[in-house]
Amino acid sequence: MYDIISKEKINSLICDASYNIIVLETVSSTNLYLKELSKDGAPHETVVIADNQTNGRGRPGREFFSPSGTGIYMSILIHPDKTELQPGLLTVAAGVAVCRALESVCSTIPRIKWVNDIFVNGKKVCGVLAESLTNPLQGINSIIVGIGINVTTSSADFPGELSNIAGSVFPENATRNEIIAKVLAEFKMIYNSFDAKSLIEEYKSYLFVLGKKISFNQNGKTFSGIASDINTEGNLIVKLENGETITLKSGEVSLGSENFTE
After folding, report:
1. With pLDDT > 90 as the criterion, what percentage of the chain qualifies?
2. What residues have CB less than 8 Å from 164, skipping those under 6 apart?
3. CB-based contact 85:78 (threshold 8 Å)
4. Could you give the maximum distance between any two Cα atoms of the chain, in Å?
5. Which residues 6+ apart lie within 8 Å of 2 measured at CB?
6. Is the pTM of this model over 0.90?
């Protein structure tokens, strides 16, 4: 049976009507769609969810594979009421919310590769992308948090190299509506009682890069070192091979293998 995403079902599961939920059959990108809505004054906690994306957005220059009927593609509009709620920490908050939801609803053991990739059984099942909407006079006044989760996409459906890297949650009894509702409920809980210290500690408990050798590119050069810690802004602290310490605010890190099995 086709797993239909329903605004009414999601609202009934959240038991909270404060989210302004918009469900679409198809869209180029939920982040881009929500960005346009924000220009027209869309309220705080507007959520756009699509069954399919024709141009889903991942990291810069990459597309998030978004086939119909098998994934969750949604974006949340946030008008921050706390100065410390910057895109980096909202990315962390969304990652923790997804991990909580997958543990609770899907009975999986999710892990995070800094900064925004969520893995299950050694395969990437979710990505998070936070984007700032800036005002020349006021600075950051809104943030869009995009979340893409592969729920039942089979490995054969992933194109090219993705078939070796990406995976799906494959919940036995949960629907997409249940997963969406739980992610939104957990995200709201984290946001409303925001505490950076406790959030970072929980985020670190899901990370699988700490204490491991990683490599990354910066200014056209490749560096290697040990991922030693996460600071209160969600940045990765790396101790380089020459003994120096560097703080990564964004970017992508690599381990010996992109696959991870605990």
Report:
1. 68
2. none
3. yes
4. 57
5. 69
6. yes
